[in-house]
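Appendix B, record 7
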Amino acid sequence: MKARVKWLDNMSFVGESGSGHSIVMDGPPESGGRNLGVRPMEMLLLGLGGCASFDVVLILQKSKQQIIDCEVQIEAARADKEPKVFTRIHLHFVVTGRSVSAEKVERAIKLSAEKYCSASIMLAQMAEVTHDFELIEAP
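Structure tokens (predicted):
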């Protein structure tokens, strides 16, 4: 896996993935940025959320669950002093579907957190990573 990050100007950078996709990263105005894109630490949380969501959706689909939506809301706390690493990360999954089994959702999240999501497993080496979920019954 490869990636490249190129400085544009001020505190703006463009990240290019090995699969050919790009994203702009920028800092807040107080750091010389223009607030044109996500912050690098936000990118870590987005990567975590994407990795975990991929797993949960795939596991639920393989379990024949009738899901129609899956969202993960992520909240994180960082250390007060440099390096301001994540100290706590909480992922709250909101799964919408028809007759979805809470046990299967719980199992999917656990498998993701403990076996499949490399981002979650890696970040859990530094921070406390917790999960919970809610189910919404679709009409």
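Remarks on this record: The mean pLDDT is 97. The first strand starts at residue 3 and ends at 9.
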